[in-house]
Design a protein that fits this description.
7-stranded mixed sheet; Phosphatase 2c, domain 1; 2 domains; alpha+beta; 5-stranded antiparallel sheet
């Protein structure tokens, strides 16, 4: 009841102020003797009165629009935080940084999705790209991310996680015929000893940064995007080597490499990463900052598609498990099975 009463004066003010301005102008024109004269001075005064009335009305409308825009942005910020939750700066010994930018001007989130979660099966990450971009793809993003956040804890292997995502997408498309019809998805699992396995449905393979070497994580042909064709009966994860201490993975959506400059040339992500690894120190935050700066400069600040980047760096320390000093069997910082809490979470950057 109190909240209802608090809103009444605003509505009265919103309707009453323009009415008062209009009544003032009409009263002046009909009742003021000066307004009936044709002298130059009377015309100047009359013009000034109506100019003041018009200015007041414009300012009032502008203030109402600014207030409404501020409320819309607050709602968009809340939706953004619920959909693409801010990632902690460290997850189970991995240093994490992520950022995305929507192609739709004024939109904070678009058709790109990502998440990183530590589970008893290892650290699992997803990077995806919904067909289309902007706010029209949000429903599909929510369906896929929601399924991933549940499945990674329940399913022991990536193949079953992928099937859960496929079923969730199918249900969503069946319930909402206006939704986008397919999604490219990359699933990664990083075990406690750094071994990487992946399942790729039509998504670009990430880049592995090891020292000064920049190369694709894998070159295997991906499966078709989710939603186009049924998944095959067997879904064996692809072994992708190891993420050693100090190595980094750069996951991205195709909007990054599809960005063009004024002459129509595509952005070379691999060349940009080669320049990044020459700098020191190479942190996920520095990689992200350098790549986005180069990308926006290349596309003159107007990318044609949604873009997203996710960087994972192995900051675990090797633990020697035998007296001969051979390579350890586990890495420090990976003992916790669940996603660890952090006192200093690093918000996802929405550029």
């Amino acid at each position: 009841m109190f909240r209802f009463k608090a809103r009444v004066p605003r509505k009265v003010l919103a309707l009453g102020l323009p009415t008062a301005w209009g009544a003032m102008a009409i009263t002046y024109k009909l009742a003021c003797p000066l307004a009936q004269q044709d002298s130059l001075g009377a015309r100047v005064v009359t013009s000034a009165v109506f100019f003041a009335v018009g200015t007041g009305l414009v300012l009032h409308v502008r203030q109402a629009l600014v207030r409404e825009l501020r409320q819309v942005r607050e709602v968009a910020g809340a939706a953004q935080s619920a959909l693409l939750r801010p990632l902690p700066s460290r997850i189970d010994g991995l240093n994490v940084a992520a950022a995305q930018r929507s192609a739709d001007r004024g939109a904070w989130v678009g058709g790109d999705l990502y998440e990183v979660i530590a589970t008893e099966h290892g650290v699992r990450a997803v990077m995806g790209d919904v067909r289309g971009h902007g706010v029209a793809a949000l429903g599909t993003v929510a369906a896929v991310l929601g399924a991933f956040r549940e499945a990674v804890h329940d399913e022991p292997d990536l193949g079953r996680v992928l099937r859960r995502l496929d079923r969730a997408l199918a249900r969503h498309l069946r319930d909402d015929a206006s939704s986008e019809e397919f999604v490219t998805v990359l699933l990664l699992e990083i075990s406690r000893d750094g071994e990487i396995t992946a399942l790729n449905c039509g998504h670009p393979w990430p880049y592995l940064l090891s020292g000064t070497i920049v190369e694709p994580l894998a070159r295997a042909d991906p499966l078709p995007p989710l939603g186009l064709f049924p998944l095959p009966t067997e879904l064996p994860p692809v072994p992708c080597g190891s993420l050693l201490p100090g190595d980094s993975l750069v996951l991205y959506t195709d909007g990054v490499e599809d960005a063009r400059d004024g002459r129509g040339r595509f952005f070379s992500l691999q060349a940009a990463l080669v320049g990044v690894v020459r700098e020191s120190p190479i942190t996920p935050q520095a990689i992200l900052r350098t790549l986005f700066t180069a990308l926006l400069r290349h596309s003159r600040g107007r990318p044609a598609d949604d873009i997203a980047l996710l960087v994972l760096r192995n900051d675990r320390t090797l633990v020697d498990c035998n007296p001969l000093g051979a390579r350890g069997c586990d890495m420090g910082g990976s003992a916790a099975g669940a996603r660890p809490a952090t006192m200093n979470p690093q918000p996802t950057n929405h550029l």
